[in-house]
Amino acid sequence: MKRIAKLLAGAAALAAVALAGSAFAASHGKTKIGFIYVGPIGDHGWSYQHNQGRLALEEAFGDKIETNYVENVSEGPDAERTIERLAREGYDMIFTTSFGFMNPTLKVAKKFPDIKFEHATGYKRADNVSTYSSRFYEGRYIIGQIAAKVSETGTAGYIASFPIPEVVRGINAFMLGAQSVNPDFKLKVVWVNTWFDPGKEADAAKALIDQGVDIITQHTDSPAPLQVAAERGIKGFGQASDMIRFAPEAQLTSIVDVWDAYYISRVQAVMDGTWESTDTWGGLDAKMVEMAPYTNLPENVAAEAAVTQESIRSGEFHPFTGPIYKQDGTLLVAEGDIVDDGTLLGMNFYVKGVDGELPN
Amino acid sequence: MPFKLQRREEHSAWMTLFSPLIAVALMLATGAALFASLGIDPVRGLTVYFLEPLQSAWSLQELVVKATPLILIGIGLSICYRANIWNIGAEGQFVAGALAGSYIPIMMVGWEGPLVFPAMIAAGMAGGALFALIPAALKVRFGANEILTSLLLVYVAQFFLDWLVRGPWRDPEGFNFPESRLFDSDAITPLIFEGGRMHIGFPVAVIIALLAAFYLTRTIHGFQIQVIGESPRAARFAGFSQNKMIFFAFAVSGALAGLAGIMEVAGPIGQLRPTISPGYGFTAIIVAFLGRLNPIGIVIAGFVLALSYLGGEAAQVTLGISDKIARVFQGLLLFYVLACDTFIVYTFRRVGAVREAS
After folding, report:
1. CB–CB of A77 and B269 under 8 A?
2. Is residue A56 included in any domain, yes or no?
3. What's the Cα-to-Cα distance from B150 to each of A68, B48, B153, B250, rounded to whole Å?
4. A151 and A64 together in one domain
C-alpha cells in the first residue's frame, strides 16, 4: 500500500511540474521566434546566413522579441520533435530553414494552429505555414558570364550537392550565362551528395582542377572549394555568404543569401496581426539575393557584371529567356519566351552544353 | 610506480550488475564538471538534460518513440554478441527492412485494407534478415570477417535507399525532390494515443524482450548461444554447429533491425527519405552493452540512450549549448561502461608487488 501511495504522490508531483511548465509558457509578453537549422551556424554558408537573419531580427526589434535556434537538426524523424519542442515552449513563430523539414513542419503546424510557421525552399503550405525561397539562379547567371570571360581553358568546375530542382536550376543558369559569352563553354559537374562536408568538397575541387578547369563554383556550403582554388592559383565564387576572407585572392564574387528583410517583414506582420500564409520567391529585386563585391576581376568584366545584375534586378532581362534547348536537343522555350516558374521549380534536366548525365 | 592489469580470480556478481550504474554515475559526474566549465550551473544543466524530458506526457511519448528502435535493434545484437558474432551492420539492416517494407505502400498504390500493414511488417523483417545473411554467408563460406562486411554493407544499403528516393521511388508529385510519396493511412504504424507519436512498436519491443529473455535462459537453443560464445571448443565437442549459429544470429538480429526500420518509416516518418535513421543501428551497440546483453537490461538501456538524445536537444534549446553535447554524453557513457567492465575482470596490481608474490 505504502508503495502505491508513494507512486501516486510521485505521479502527482510530475503532473504539477508539467502544468507549471505550460502555464509559464503561456504567460509571456515578448514575441518568441524560433529557428531550426540543418547545419551548424559556423558553416559560413546556408545556416550561417539564416542565423544572420535571426541576428538582424534582434537588432531590428530589440526587447520586443526573443529569438532562439537549434542547429544541426537532422532531416529525419528528429526534426518533427525539435519543431514540436519549440512549439510547446510557447514560440509564436518558427522558421524551419531546410527543404527536408517540410513534412515535419506541416505535421507540427496542424497541431498548433495559432503558431505561425515559415518553411524555406518547400512547396507545401497551410493556413499557418508559409514558404519562402530566393531566386539564387539570378546570381548564377551572372557568375556564369563572369566565368566565361575570365576562364582561359573555357572550362569551369561545378561542385553540386543533390540533384534537386534548386541545384539543377543553378547549374543551368550558370551555363546559360556562360554560353551568352562563349557558346562553346564547357562545364564539369561533380555531385558530392552533401550540403556541408569541407573534406569532400575540397576533394571534389582538387579533382576538377586536375581535370583542367580554371574556375570553381559550388552549390555546397563550406568555403573549402574556394580555399582549394586559392591554393592552386585559380579563381572561384563564394556561396551563400561573402567568403572573401577565406580566399581574398581567389573569390571573384559570391551569391549572398540575405534573409534580413524578409524575416523582419514577417515578424512585423505577426506582431501587427496581419500575417497570412504566403509563398515568396524573391530575387535581386526583393534584396533576397545580393552579389558580394566584384573583386580580382578586370575592370570591364566587373562593370559588365554590374550591368547584367541591374538588368535582372529591374526585370528587363530574365536569365531563362529563349531560345533554350534541353541537353537532348529538344526546344524548351522559343526565342523571346521565358521559362515559367512552374518549370523552373521542378527542373530536372540539363540545358544543352552541360557535360555528363544528370543523376537520377 | 608501474602498474599492470591482472586477471581476477573471481568475478563479483554484484559488480557485474552494478557496473552500468557506476558508469552512469561517473558520466553524470563528468557531465556536471563539463557544465561547470562552460559556466552553467551543473545542477541546472543536469536537470535540463536528464529530468526535463521526463516531465511532460509529450516528451515521455517522444522518449518511447526514440527508445523503441534502439531496444529492438539492441535485443537482436545481444543475441549475436552473446554468441561471439560481431554484427556491426544493424544500421544497414534497419535500412534494408525499411526498404523492403516500403515497397508495398510505394509501388502497390491502391492496395488498401487491414492486411497492408502486417504485410509491410513481414516484408520488413524478411528484408532485414536477408540483408543480414550476406555477411553471415560470407563468414561461413569464405571466412570473411563479419565486422568488416556487415559494416561496409551499411553504406550499400544507405546508397541504395538514396538512389531509390532520388529515382524510381521518388514522389511523382513532389517536384523532383528526393522523397517518396507519403504512406496511406492503412500503411501507417498504428498509434497508441491519437495526436501523439507513440506507436505499437513499443509494446511489440517489450514483448520481444520478454520472449528473448525466456529464450536465452530457458531453452536449449538459447543455452547453445552462451556455450558457443564463451567456449567454442566445448561447443564443438557438444556437437553444436557454429555455422548454423552464425546464420541464426544474423537472421534474428537482421529481422529485428528490419522490424525497427519499417516501423520507423511507417510511423514517425511516414515516407522514405534519403536518410531515415540518425544512427540507431550504431547507437544500439551501446544499448546492447549497457544493458549487459540482457533483453530486460536492454529495454532500460534503450531509455537511457534515448534520454541522452532528447536531453541534448533540450540542453540546446534551453541552455544554448552545442548539439555536440549529446554525443559527448553518449561517448562518456560507453567509455565508462567499458572501463567499469574491465575492472570486473581485471584488477590493478603494482608490478613490483606481483614479482614479490611470485
Report:
1. yes
2. yes
3. 41, 37, 5, 10
4. no
